[in-house]
Each structure stands twice: as structure tokens, then as C-alpha cells.
Design goal:
The chain has 236 residues and is mainly alpha-helical. The protein contains 13 helices and no strands.
Length: 236
């Protein structure tokens, strides 16, 4: 059973790894511009598997910012993963050992979170490990390759590669939205709210990470109050 779940995780994690490689490639270019070596870039990607947070970190390094400034900007950019981990805890067996929770929590990203919560029933650790076994090397490898060869390619080619991640993310959220009208409504509201907050004066002044946190709390909280998930349905 565990072997089957691991293989399923690898199967679902493969397109994520390919998308990560493309996006991390552009991050590698930013890392090289900030003066990082290939080894330093790989370590950064292994410790911070997040595009916005890692790009913010590379930007502050390139600007010779202080450690405090770097810590604050990466905290804000990555804070949404705290919310994802909290939501994911509802899909984990309460008897799961603490070390397994830590291992899964190490690589809770937008896309991995999407396939984790879409998995029927409680999340098997082997499934998460299978997805991570490809996603993590894809991210770190893309960063290394970007540092090595990123400056050789034209900027428009790198920008085109970055689109792959957004297309992959749509492929993750569309199937659940087609099955559940509430999820579909939340997806539409999330897109509309994100666009509106980008042009509303006060909200537009906030960072994208902060806006994401506010919208996530507001929309998920409203959905939990208006459309609560029954325990019987969740247990199934």
C-alpha cells in the first residue's frame, strides 16, 4: 500500500517538478545576479522552496540589505504557507508521528498543497514523500541550471518558461472546481478579489504576500462559516 502511494505521489509530482525546474531556472538568473554560486543557490532552494520568498531573498542579497530586512521580507512572502499547513493538518491522521509531520511540512508549497488536499481521505505520508522526491530536486536543479546558463538565454525566453508554473497550477485547481460548486465559486472570487486588491489604493500598497494572506483568511473563513464541511463527508 505504501509503495503504491509513493508511486502515485511521484506520478502527480512529476508535472510539478517540471514546472518547478522552469521557474527555478529564472530564479537561478536572479541568484547569479546577486553573486551567488551554484552551491549557494542549490542550498538556498533546498532550504526555501518558494518562488516569491526566494526571489525576495535574492533581491535583498543583491541590494546588500541587512539580515533583519531579509528575514522580514521572506517571512511576509512565505507567511501564506503557515495557513496552508494549518489547513493541511485537517487532512492528516492525528496518530501520525511528529517527525513525519515535520517532513511533510518542510515542503508545503502551493502546488503540493493542492494535490495533498485533493487526495481522497487522509493524506498518506508515502504519497507526500513521492511527490516531494521529484519536486525538491526539480526546484534545486532548476536553480543550479539557471545560475550556470541563465544569462546565456534571452530574457523573453526565460519569461516564457515561467508561464509553465501558472498553467500547471490551473491544471490542479480546475478539476476540484468542476466537482464542487463551492470550490468553483471560491476560485472565481479569489481571482476577482486578487485583481481588485491590486488596484484599490490601500490594498495595492501592500505586498503581494500580505494581500494573499488577507484574501486567504477572508475567503476561507467565509466559506467555513457559510459552507461547513460535514465530518462524515471528510472522513470518507
Amino acid at each position: 500500500m505504501q509503495g503504491n502511494e509513493f508511486r502515485k505521489g511521484m506520478r502527480d509530482g512529476l508535472p510539478i517538478a517540471l514546472g518547478y525546474f522552469a521557474v527555478a531556472f529564472s530564479l537561478g538568473i536572479a541568484a547569479r545576479g546577486a553573486g551567488l554560486t551554484i552551491a549557494q543557490g542549490v542550498v538556498a532552494s533546498l532550504l526555501n522552496n518558494a518562488s516569491a520568498g526566494e526571489y525576495a531573498g535574492f533581491t535583498t542579497i543583491g541590494a546588500d540589505a541587512s539580515y533583519l530586512e531579509m528575514a522580514l521580507i521572506t517571512l511576509v512572502a512565505n507567511a501564506r504557507y503557515l495557513l496552508m499547513s494549518t489547513a493541511l493538518s485537517q487532512h492528516i491522521d492525528p496518530k501520525m508521528p511528529f517527525w513525519q509531520r515535520l517532513t511533510i511540512g518542510y515542503d508545503v508549497t502551493d502546488e503540493l498543497f493542492g494535490i495533498y488536499v485533493a487526495h481522497p481521505g487522509m493524506l498518506p505520508p508515502a504519497y507526500a514523500y513521492g511527490a516531494m522526491s521529484l519536486a525538491i530536486p526539480g526546484w534545486a536543479g532548476g536553480t543550479a541550471f539557471g545560475i550556470f546558463a541563465g544569462q546565456v538565454l534571452p530574457q523573453r525566453v526565460v519569461s516564457a518558461l515561467s508561464v509553465a508554473l501558472y498553467g500547471m497550477f490551473l491544471a490542479i485547481i480546475i478539476p476540484p472546481a468542476r466537482k464542487d460548486k463551492v470550490v468553483a465559486l471560491l476560485v472565481v472570487l479569489a481571482f476577482a478579489s486578487s485583481w481588485a486588491c491590486g488596484i484599490v489604493p490601500w490594498f495595492s500598497a501592500l505586498s503581494s504576500g500580505t494581500r494573499t494572506i488577507i484574501l486567504t483568511v477572508a475567503l476561507s473563513g467565509a466559506a467555513a462559516l457559510l459552507f461547513p464541511v460535514k465530518e462524515e463527508a471528510h472522513a470518507a
